[in-house]
Structure formats: structure tokens, C-alpha cells
Specification:
Layout lengths: L1 E6 L2 E6 L4 H9 L5 E7 L5 E8 L4 H11 L14 E5 L2 E2 L6 H4 L11 E7 L3 H15 L8
Parallel strand pairs: 3-7
Antiparallel strand pairs: 1-2, 3-4, 5-6, 5-7
């Protein structure tokens, strides 16, 4: 079911399957503020392209990558913080927006922006697990009288 409504000076088509966030984003963002982005994985395969608002944060992109990650891959991210996004040679910070990370206007006109997605498991879990294993293997006690 589709319904067309007027929102300010724009006509907005609302589908019954659209979420509220999608409807609000379509109503607020002019076409030039949307960016197509595809994510290149470690093996050369791609996820996307997907269309994002220039105001979307890098953290939002990472959450989408975790959701869309192909199930047959040997490396699987469990949470968004395990993913590092690289664009134009820079590691992107979670609090930055897509608009702050894209190329100067005109360089990618009509093309999807490519970001490299690298999985880097969190070190805290690995170190904690290793310490527990090591503590069970080493047993040394001294008694001085």
C-alpha cells in the first residue's frame, strides 16, 4: 500500500512497509544530500550499495554492515565496534558523519562511494581469555619458614 502526502514543500510517498525513520529521512533530505555507499570486504566482495543521508554517522554504517554481512564468510563481526571503515586512506571515527568523510564534490558524481570494511576483533576479550588459560597452566608456590 502506498500513500502520497505533502510534507512542507515536498511530496512524500509512504509505503506501509517503511519504518518511521525511513519516512522522516525521505521527507527531510533533499536528493543531493543522499550518498550511495558500498562496502568492500577483505576478500574483494562488496556489500551494497546503500543510500545514506549525509548526516548519518559512521557508527550507523557499521551497524548496517554487521546486519548485512554475508553469512558464509570465515571472518564475522559480532558487533559494530569490531569493524573499521577506511575511506580515502583514513580510518573513519564513529562520531563523524558521511558528509564529513566523502570526497570533494564532483569527483564521484553518479558513482557509489567505496569504503573498505575491516574486521578487527576487540582485544579486551582475547587478552582476558588468554590470561585465564595461562593462569591455569602455571602453578608455582613457595613457602619460606
Amino acid at each position: 500500500m502506498e500513500k502520497e502526502e505533502r510534507c512542507g514543500s515536498k511530496n512524500v510517498t509512504i509505503k506501509s512497509t517503511s519504518s518511521i525513520a525511513e519516512i522522516e529521512e525521505k521527507a527531510e533530505m533533499p536528493e543531493e544530500d543522499l550518498v550511495d555507499i558500498k562496502f568492500r570486504l577483505y576478500d574483494g566482495s562488496d556489500i551494497g550499495p546503500f543510500r545514506y543521508s549525509s548526516a548519518s554517522t559512521i557508527e550507523t554504517l557499521k551497524e548496517r554492515i554487521v546486519f548485512e554481512w554475508p553469512k558464509g564468510k570465515t571472518v564475522l563481526p559480532k558487533v559494530a565496534n569490531e569493524i573499521k571503515l577506511i575511506s580515502f586512506g583514513k580510518i573513519l571515527e564513529n562520531d563523524k558523519t558521511v558528509g564529513q568523510c566523502r570526497a570533494p564534490s564532483g569527483e564521484l558524481a553518479g558513482m557509489a562511494m567505496v569504503m573498505h570494511a575491516v574486521v578487527q576483533p576487540s582485544l579486551a576479550k582475547t587478552k582476558t581469555g588468554k590470561k585465564m588459560e595461562d593462569s591455569g597452566n602455571l602453578a608455582c608456590s613457595c613457602c619460606i619458614m
